[in-house]
Amino acid sequence: MSRIKITAEQRKDWRNLPYDQWNVLTVQAYFADMNRELFGIESYLPMRNYGFEQGVIKRALSEHGAELLKRAFDDCFREYRPTREYPLLTAGFVISYRINTIIPRLKAEIKRDEQTKDITVDFAELAKLL
Predict the structure, then answer these.
(1) What is the spatial distance between Cα 54 and Cα 59, in angstroms, rounded to a whole number?
(2) Which of 38, 88, 115, 122 has its CA 20 to 30 A from that of 75?
(3) Inter-axis angle of helices 50-64 and 66-79, to 10 degrees?
(4) 3-state DSSP call for residue 89?
(5) Residue 104 pLDDT more than 90?
(6) Does pLDDT of 1 surpass 50?
């Protein structure tokens, strides 16, 4: 089975790209778009430099997966309040300093949701027992 080649432009379309196709470029496009939409920042600048940030993103994608990372990123953007010194939120900062507190909580929520989804109640059987 041959894989369809995804172009760089398609990789930047994070809203329509399946999570299993996300890569470093997708995450950086997500951060650039979100900073533009939420904070009016037109130019995305990575934490330290692009090489550092790309490495951090690649490791995080391998370790956590794109879907879980995106949920963590969404939480960070909801909570972030820009300042004069830090007017935008970078992927490098979020991955280096923020997701280590968010990912465990998200994993616990996912586990709890899976456990409650597995519980099915047959109310007719329950009524007979009572």
Answers:
(1) 9
(2) 115
(3) 120
(4) coil
(5) yes
(6) no
